[in-house]
Fold these 2 entries.
Entry 1:
Amino acid sequence: MDLDAEHLADSAFWAAPPEHRHRVFAALREHDPVRWYEPRVSGFSRACTGFWALTRYEDVWNASRNARVYCSGVTIDIEEMPDELGEFYPSMINLDDPEHFQLRRMVSAGFTPKEIAAIEPKLRATARRIVDDVLDRFGDGTEFDLVQELSSKLPLAAIADLMGVPADDQQLLFEWTNAVVSPDDPATGIAGAAEASRALADYALQLGAERRARPAGDLTSALMHAEIDGRRLSTEEFANFFILLASAGNETTRNAITHGVRLLTAHPDQRRAWFDDFDAVAPTAVEEIVRYETLISNMCRVLTEDVLVQGVPIAAGEKVALWYPSANRDRRAFDDPDRFDVRRPLHRQQLGYGGGGPHFCLGANLARAEMTVMFDEIRRRIPDLHVTGEPTRVLSMALNSITHVPASVR
Ligand code: HEM
């Protein structure tokens, strides 16, 4: 493997088959686990700055948990953020303490296991309706687009319900959110993403103001009335948080469901192992889908002081990229890491939701609940659901996304 011939921020690397990327990451973990990549302008529309790539489990885990040194406030992206988009992103994911801690404390009450358990019946009812619809229209075995007809629906409805967005507005939310996370997709472009961010922000400002005036028992109302240390969330802070939730919680969970169906198609023994003992296996199965496919590829941090990682000195002010798909295939952390195993023990914890530091995915419990409910409904009603062709993948170094894949229930 010629590591000099591969650049992790080059579009060619992400256009190659996933197996190639896993071979490169494996070589990096073995031979160059802390490697510097020069700034680059590639087929992606935005330029990337230089960065250090951390590819071993241990290093990604440590960096995630040391937010004082590995900070998020400067940037979390490899690519430079265009000015048009920057104004919409000062939410918790790219804040440091004390602002991060304050904001996270205000919103985290809506995402505890107890809160998620309380909305589970609603998630189940939505999953049932989605499968009813698939059965009605494609029950005879007609091919359909899995992403459009099944995977995309529950994540969107879950966030919309949680935040109190009426059903009639969900389609709009869906379109804006897709555009916000796709500035590199030529069909959207930076202008399209900026326009959608503005539309989402306007929508959220209005929703926040309405709930401030008339609380309605949803998370938006709770947030607009929460008071911590004598401070309330401003409607602008709420709007930024709303955009973050809509973009962080939608496409990731949608991809987890799509990849899950793909994996169960490719591994019928794993489908049997899970579906024959659903409740017992679900906690490890939903974690294994997220480990194996690792839906978010990286997050960056900028160093606040000099450090030594695996003996390599990195200077304060430099950017470090945490490569989750690589960490999740590290043989130092997982036995036989390239095997998809729905019963893989939960220790060690996979890093698809981050390494457990202060920025650990706020929606992890919600994502797990959505996946469990959706696959339970699939098991009961359409247990033979399978993909029938190759997926259309998004060319992205940030997200492991599928836009279309044909499927059938027979
Ligand atoms: C399978 C689905 C999901 C995956 C793989 C995923 C992955 C991630 C990752 C890797 C991070 C960054 C962690 C870090 O920097 O340490 C993150 C942060 C975040 N996620 Fe998720 N996520 C998923 C679903 C969701 C959902 C459903 C929501 C909300 C409805 C959500 C909301 C957030 C938020 C708000 C943050 C920022 C937290 C902070 O900075 O304190 N995510 N997620």
Entry 2:
Amino acid sequence: MGKKFIADYYDHYKPFDQLTTIGLETQDQLELSQNWKYHVRIDRLSKNKEGVYYICDYKTNSQLKAQEELDQDRQLAMYSLWVRQRYPDAKDVKLMWFFLAFDQEMISERNTEQLQKLKLDTESLIKEIEACENFPTEVNSLCNWCVYKSMCPAWKHDVELEAKTPKQFKDDDGVKLVDELAKLDSEKKITEDRIYQIKEDLIKFAQQKDLSVVFGTDNKATVKPYDKIEYPKTEEFVELLKKKGLFEELAVLNYSKFLSKILKREVDTDVLREIKTEQGWMVRLGKRKE
Ligand code: SF4
């Protein structure tokens, strides 16, 4: 794909005389109010003969972005503030994306009012972030690029382990606990499967010998039939239960659905007031690469 992107790009733009490149992978900071700074790293900064500057961003996305999305893009628009400050000769500044997989360029433009508003919005976002004291982890595909990984509760143990020798790794208390839990969990699954199979075999054994109790050394197993009931899961059935006055008596609250509604704040405040919350802990086992 890389080869194809480069070949298509080359064929499209040779002999590359549309724009003059002024900078590649620029490294600078845009000064904001209160000494805040916005990191500026432009893939390629170019200008044409008329003095219009182009902030070029190269994308290998497998999906083309919609124009509306690009018109809302913060990053390149913020870079354009830096370009206007740094190059006062700029007649105009355009934001340009090259979608290499589609051999297509897309452009977005911003006026002074839009940029002023974006700057204020960004500053207020910085203020909000700096005032925040609670940063819940949000594990995602960009974690490997995150500068806080070594401090992050979701990763710092892994980062610590990377620095350990194989012996220190094996002796780590966390590694020992997780490995033992994983071993027991897999044994539990094997045991549960085996219990199910033995019960099936016992039923067959009892049926063949016409037994209702099968004896072992210290224990006995009672084997007896029961009626499996299948409840209709239709609205009509629920209506029937209601009509017969059974619904109120028999229906139970669906707690997992209720929890999801609470988390999404879709529950009336009067109901929320009745709910007490206390912190609990859960442990979920998963694969390292999950
Ligand atoms: S490493 Fe931690 S802090 Fe960084 S993005 Fe991932 S979850 Fe968030």
